[in-house]
Design a protein that fits this description.
The complex is a heterodimer of chains A (244) and B (204). Chain A has 13 helices and no strands. Chain A has 244 residues and is an all-alpha fold. Chain B is built from nine helices and no strands. The radius of gyration of chain B is 21 Å and the shape is flat. Classes of the chains: A mainly alpha (244), B mainly alpha (204).
Chain lengths: 244, 204
């Protein structure tokens, strides 16, 4: 559109704004007989309409990514969290030292501990299970570099039937300070209806955001986690919320 | 495989390459950008006295600007996407805050002269223009809408459009695009004629 004279550009804009007067509308109709002008009006219409569609798509993504939790539930969770939070402050000062609020890394180091390997108890035998077992042996030995390679290969080869692979892979990545890679894996578990270890994944997701110093996001996840956790790390979540 | 796809992570080169080519992965890239960067932009807006809804608007405007700059070859890679988005968002927020006569803690003086002349009316006009343009485009058939969007807005190559739309080859796609543009011009002319008649009647 920049190729057109500025008068023509103004005319097109006013047409799109629907603010042309009668005289200008006649001029617009005349100009539409010219190939260049008509082409520009058509393309501008497509651009504006497509931008509108993109905006709608982004709003949809926003709803899916950010606002998946109903507001009411969030408010209730926050109210519950607030109560627990107040209670925990008192307990906290009796038992622990305060950590400076700007030290996310310290808080991460304090609260992070690899989740125990429960696959042997819950897993079902199968060819992929053998590979997962190998990865978990490395994980148990705290050989996270090797574990990461094995988990990555497992994920690349085929979709995991359950959420063990991405879950342990994410924790192994966190142990190697690779939170940015761990985050999408944990979020995928949380968005998977049938995934196991969802509550646990939420806890580690909060720690992952803490590792990259996104305290506000970590705090929001912890508040959700508190309202849903049935015991796992619930008390730690209270204390951590105070610290961040 | 669904789970793995959802967890896909993109680096800056991949993001630019996918957005430039306009392939089917675009949505997944936009979702990824949203997940990764919304938090920091929201923090920026809230820290400067904005609210969550304003943060949402600012971030979406930012992503659209970034998307269009990449598509139109105006994105020059001199910084990480994260930094680039942050800078656009900061400018967006300053413009918005100035429109609302709100105090912001950012260095406003440093941004003087950079797109700061956007008025509140301009935002309204932009929205109205988009609604009007959509009403025109919606008069086209679905196929025409898709071809024109892919070709003009998303800058997808004709060969790929042919594949997406299941045409025999790029030439068929080109012919279809030409016909759609001609159809669109007629719709625009009809709309202008309708507006003129309506104004005539009003003045009588």
């Amino acid at each position: 559109m920049n190729d057109l004279p500025s008068q023509d550009r103004k005319l097109i804009r006013k047409f799109m704004e629907q603010s042309l007067d009668e005289k200008e509308l006649s001029l617009f109709q005349q100009k539409m007989q010219k190939e260049d002008f008509a082409q520009q009006v058509a393309e501008e219409s497509v651009r504006l309409s497509s931008r509108s569609k993109l905006q709608t798509e982004l709003k949809k993504i926003h709803t899916e990514v950010v606002s998946s939790q109903p507001r009411r539930r969030r408010r209730m969770a926050m109210a519950a969290a607030f109560g627990i939070f107040i209670l925990s402050i008192t307990l906290y000062y009796f038992f622990t030292k305060e950590i400076p609020s700007n030290h996310s890394e310290i808080a991460f180091a304090k609260y992070f501990e690899p989740y125990p390997n429960v696959f042997e108890q819950r897993g079902t035998p199968g060819s992929e299970d053998q590979k997962l077992r190998r990865a978990l042996v490395a994980y148990d030995r705290q050989n996270y570099a090797e574990a990461n390679l094995l988990f990555a290969a497992l994920l690349e080869k085929e979709a995991p039937e359950n959420s063990y692979t991405p879950f342990y892979y994410a924790i192994s990545l966190l142990a190697k300070q690779q939170a940015e890679e761990a985050i999408p894996l944990l979020e995928a578990i949380l968005s998977n209806e049938s995934a196991l270890l969802k509550s646990e994944a939420q806890w580690y997701l909060a720690l992952a955001y803490l590792q990259i110093n996104q305290k506000e996001t970590a705090r929001k996840i912890l508040l959700d986690f508190q309202s849903e956790s049935k015991g796992f790390k619930k008390e730690e979540a209270n204390l951590l919320l105070k610290e961040i | 495989m669904k789970l793995f796809k959802k967890a896909k992570k993109y680096n800056d080169e991949e993001i630019i390459s996918i957005l430039k080519s306009g392939g089917p992965q675009e949505s997944s890239v936009l979702e990824y950008l949203y997940k990764i960067h919304f938090g920091s932009i929201k923090q920026l807006v809230i820290k400067q006295g904005g609210n969550t809804f304003e943060a949402e608007d600012v971030f979406q405007e930012t992503l659209i600007t970034f998307y269009e700059q990449v598509k139109n070859g105006k994105y020059i890679r001199h910084a990480k996407i994260k930094t680039y988005l942050y800078t656009i968002a900061k400018n967006n927020w300053i413009n918005r805050a100035k429109r609302n006569n709100r105090q912001v803690g950012l260095n406003v003086a440093a941004h003087e002269g950079k797109d700061n002349n956007i008025s509140a009316n301009e935002i309204l006009f932009q929205k109205e223009m988009m609604v009007f343009a959509e009403s025109i485009i919606n008069e086209l058939g679905d196929n025409c809408q898709k071809i024109l969007e892919l070709s003009i807005y998303k800058k997808v190559a004709m060969k790929e459009i042919a594949e997406i739309m299941q045409f025999n080859n790029a030439q068929v796609a080109r012919n279809k695009k030409y016909k759609c543009i001609e159809q669109l011009k007629k719709i625009i002319l009809k709309s202008a004629e309708f507006s003129r008649l309506a104004k005539e009647l009003k003045n009588e």
